[in-house]
Amino acid sequence: MNALFSNLPTTIFEVMSLLARETGAINLGQGFPDGSGPEDIRRAAADAVLNGYNQYPPMMGLPELRTAVANHYRHWHGVDLDPVAEVMVTSGATEAIAGALFALIEPGDEVVLFQPLYDAYLPLVKRAGGVPRLVRLEPPHWRFTEEMLTAAFSPKTKVVVLNNPLNPTATVFGREDLELLSRYCQEFDAVAVCDEVWEHVVFDGREHIPMIALPGMRDRTVKIGSAGKIFSLTGWKVGFVCAAPPLMKSLSKAHQFLTFTTPPNLQAAVAYGLDKEDAFFEGMRQDLSRSRDRLASGLRSIGLPPLESQGTYFLNVDLAPLGLNVDDESFCKTLVHERGVALIPVSAFYAETPVTSVVRICFSKQDATLDAAIERLAGLVR
């Protein structure tokens, strides 16, 4: 067996979800909505199954979806993409990330990663033979500095992986941050693999800025998106990859030997969804923002003030100022048994030197679910 994967422990996400099922706890740990997703998009998928093509679609994706992706990003981000040469469909964003890392990294290449980080990044980088160089972000602002980048980048740097908006911190990197990182990418001739699955889930009038749109980054950025996050259909696993033709040539070969294709009915439905009017996407943000504010207000009312949530499905609470004298993992495991609420310790998103005082809470739930969780947590802090 491959030692990298066989020696990996069970993730905290599996642990907490299992505990939630076993105890009947309210699961605010895993990041998925408890609704069914937009009915018209689901009906489009069902119609495509019954009346459409159900054999192998083109390896790069259905032409109508690739065109829809290009049109969508032109409209929302002002990025002009050739749907034939610069857009590819994958079976979810995680496959897109894996394919990008396998296509771009050779053994010994260094890869800059920002922690806390999505748990798939590090094993995929190592499996590709990459050497991780970790940048440690801290609450409450979770920002990186020029000093951090100077310490992380070297002549061996080949790839930078950036998640923006950032899960689990619920922060959105602004133009100043992205321009600083892009300067380092260009100086060290590195490719930015940008996990932008939360690009539409930003709040309070914030704007998502894709790295691929910045000066000097058009030919050295792999932009990755996710229909699952855009449409609250996380089980569909339909991802998009956008990159300049020289990069796409290698990216497509990696995809060809991973999943090769993605279900055509889901592709057809996502193409339909991406062409929806702006009001749909703005309404989605407003609904999630309202849920965020409802949970944040409830948490403050019981003495658990959350950190600012600028995007994603998550709020975070820093336990350190509350005088609870407990680390985040112990807190979460106690909570699921004694209070019947499952959360996620943010220390699980660190590979080394973790922040051990922050817990992540998912708010993309129905009002009754959020209110019930607050009721169970009441009296926790005295």
From TrEMBL:
CDD domains per the UniProt record, alphabetical: AAT_like
Keywords: Aminotransferase, Pyridoxal phosphate, Transferase
Domain Aminotransferase class I/classII large residues, every copy: 25-377
Pfam families linked: Aminotran_1_2
UniProt xrefs under Gene3D superfamilies: Aspartate Aminotransferase, domain 1, Type I PLP-dependent aspartate aminotransferase-like (Major domain)
Keyword Transferase: yes
Keyword Transferase appears in the UniProt entry: yes
Coiled-coil residue spans: none
GO molecular function: transaminase activity
Cofactor annotation: pyridoxal 5'-phosphate
InterPro entries attached to this UniProt entry: Aminotransferase_I/II_large, Kynurenine-oxoglutarate_AT, PyrdxlP-dep_Trfase, PyrdxlP-dep_Trfase_major, PyrdxlP-dep_Trfase_small
Name assigned to this protein: Aminotransferase
Originating organism: Flaviflagellibacter deserti
